[in-house]
Design goal:
289 residues, TIM Barrel, alpha/beta, globular, 8 helices
Length: 289
């Protein structure tokens, strides 16, 4: 699967056969068009990257009119990642889910890393109660599509938000989203990113992601989609052994536009060389010490 680095698929159609992908998860989409943050909003760091794009997107109406028809030419599942707009209110989450429920998409992923102004700018996704409340509200209107809840890793105990999503009726959870990070230009003595901090992604976060996927998969019974720094087929196997049912590729797409198809081939090579016929036998097969 592919996360937001894939945009809406257009940028990659010349590099990979989109039909080979299990699913495309769109760039974060809101009801109304949203401006992002001012540049600089991307910074490279050791084994990773930071971004503060600010969830810039053309809005749901444009997505339905332009991007969805383009994606529907391909035989791949389309999962729309969405969030509650600039205000991040529950009402906005519910309204976008209500509209997506009637659109020709295969699933909805709600991004719960948006700050909640009412709760003093905490992200919804940091507490059991917060995740449960917003997931339940979305579930009520999302009656005909699978609901995936994307969790933030910026918490002390990932098992609580994971249980919150499960208890509210989510079909799956995906993790991890980016880790809050900062990089300073030591000549200017100022942060490099325009809003000072950003989300860290890429291989640097993979060991944290594997640990959190393991914890979430063992506290909630619903499927877990693992992501965070996947660059190779071996990375995929590691996430699945930790308990992920499926995986998603993000930052790798920016480094190598053909990453996804190469990763699929590497997973197949691993299975062949280890005599594994059914990939499901790998899931949650780790033997803890």
């Amino acid at each position: 699967m592919h996360h937001g680095t894939f945009g809406y698929g257009r940028n990659h159609k010349d590099f990979v056969d989109l039909n080979q992908l299990g699913a495309i998860i769109t760039k974060g989409t809101s009801l109304k068009p949203k401006q992002g943050n001012k540049p600089p909003r991307i910074a490279e760091t050791s084994s990773g990257m930071m971004n503060c794009i600010g969830l810039e997107n053309p809005g749901l109406e444009y997505f339905g009119a332009v991007d969805l028809p383009f994606l529907r030419q391909y035989d791949t599942k389309i999962i729309v990642n969405c969030f509650g707009g600039a205000e991040g209110t529950i009402e906005n989450y519910v309204e976008i889910c209500r509209q997506l429920n009637n659109m020709d998409v295969d699933g909805v992923e709600i991004n719960l890393s948006c700050p909640n102004v009412k709760a003093g700018c905490l992200a919804y996704g940091t507490t059991y109660e917060g995740v449960k409340e917003i997931t339940a509200a979305c579930r009520k209107v999302l009656t005909s599509k699978p609901l995936i809840v994307k969790l933030t890793p910026n918490v002390t105990d990932i098992t609580l938000p994971a249980k919150g999503a499960e208890d509210a009726g989510a079909d799956a959870i995906s993790l991890i989203n980016t880790l809050t990070a900062m990089k300073i230009d030591i000549e200017k003595r100022r942060p490099i990113l325009s809003i000072n901090t950003g989300g860290l992604s890429g291989p640097a976060i993979k060991p944290i992601a594997v640990r959190m996927v393991y914890q979430a998969a063992h506290s909630a019974k619903i499927p877990v989609m693992g992501l965070g720094g996947i660059m190779t087929g071996e990375d995929v196997i590691e996430f699945m052994m930790a308990g992920a049912t499926c995986v998603s590729v993000g930052s790798a797409n920016l480094v190598d536009p053909k990453a996804s198809v190469r990763i699929i081939e590497e997973v197949e090579d691993f299975m062949k060389s280890h005599g594994i016929d059914d990939i499901n036998t790998i899931i949650d097969s780790v033997q803890m010490n």
